[in-house]
Recover the amino acids of this structure.
């Protein structure tokens, strides 16, 4: 395939000082005339390849365009490969594959094993264990719409289950706390909105394009706001759920209570989300203080019991 051959020729030219047309032709089993046409195509794409005549001549990429491999340390290359690999597993695309190929071309043979070892020391897997089967195709659709400035249409499910039809200008994909979001300008609300992908139905990329407007980045850090809203509750937990509780607070907040239990100072906000967190711990967690939150937990527990009567 021609595109594969062109990418391969670029990789070879980045790696070598100079290579002849005949050598390239034999390598790819094509005629020298085909190689000359490929070189013209690479030049038209903006990569400056020039031919050097005479003995020892051939094609080379202009030195000003090349990146010296020595610029990148082993740690640099390991970090870049780690990031690209984790991203390419979740968001597929030719540009990520090509970027990986280019970075790998910077790795000298004598450092390849060391860099592979360092890359494999950390695994970043952004894909869920299980969940919404639409997530992967939706990411691909949104990525294409971002690149081509095309409108997106979908139905959006609000907190209470209400559905609304939205036409949105996409501006950013956001991964926050293991959840994917789309930041875009909503034509229905005439404002920028952050849409959670798991609440999107029937996502489609429209043919209409849009002219990008001044972009407003979403507010993703609520630490200062949460500190003013947050209180602390005292809970007693069984040791079997320690790992789950540690997702919300540090071990410094744990005090042993006998051989099987811990008393925990647990960060809490009086809303549905945080009550649901406490209930998710089931019978292995008891809220002790403050008394009004304990009373509310008892009321909600009675409602849940009545539901199954």
């Amino acid at each position: 395939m021609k595109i594969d051959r062109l990418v391969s020729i670029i990789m070879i030219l980045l790696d070598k000082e100079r290579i002849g047309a005949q050598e390239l032709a034999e390598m790819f089993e094509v005629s020298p005339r085909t190689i000359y046409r490929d070189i013209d195509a690479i030049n038209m794409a903006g990569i400056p390849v020039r031919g050097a005549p005479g003995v020892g001549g051939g094609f080379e990429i202009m030195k000003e365009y090349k990146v010296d491999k020595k610029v990148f340390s082993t740690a640099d290359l390991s970090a870049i490969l780690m990031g690209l690999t984790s991203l390419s597993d979740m968001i597929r695309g030719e540009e990520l594959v090509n970027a990986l190929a280019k970075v790998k071309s910077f790795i000298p043979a004598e450092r390849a094993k060391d860099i592979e070892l360092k890359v494999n020391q950390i695994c970043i897997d952004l894909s869920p264990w299980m969940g919404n089967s639409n997530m992967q195709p939706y990411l691909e659709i949104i990525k294409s719409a971002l690149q081509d400035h095309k409108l997106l249409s979908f139905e959006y499910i609000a907190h209470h289950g209400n559905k609304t039809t939205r036409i949105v200008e996409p501006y950013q994909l956001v991964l926050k706390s293991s959840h994917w979001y789309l930041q875009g300008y909503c034509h229905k609300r005439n404002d920028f909105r952050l849409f959670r992908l798991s609440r999107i139905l029937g996502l489609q990329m429209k043919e209409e394009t849009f002219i990008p407007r001044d972009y407003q980045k979403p507010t993703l850090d609520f630490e200062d706001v949460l500190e003013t809203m947050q209180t602390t509750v005292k809970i007693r937990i069984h040791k079997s759920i320690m790992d789950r509780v540690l997702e919300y607070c540090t071990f410094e907040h744990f005090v042993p209570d006998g051989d099987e239990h811990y008393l925990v100072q647990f960060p809490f906000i009086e809303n549905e989300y945080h009550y649901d967190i406490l209930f998710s711990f089931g019978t292995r967690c008891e809220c002790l203080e403050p008394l009004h939150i304990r009373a509310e937990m008892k009321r909600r527990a009675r409602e849940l019991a009545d539901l199954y009567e």
About this structure: The mean pLDDT is 82.
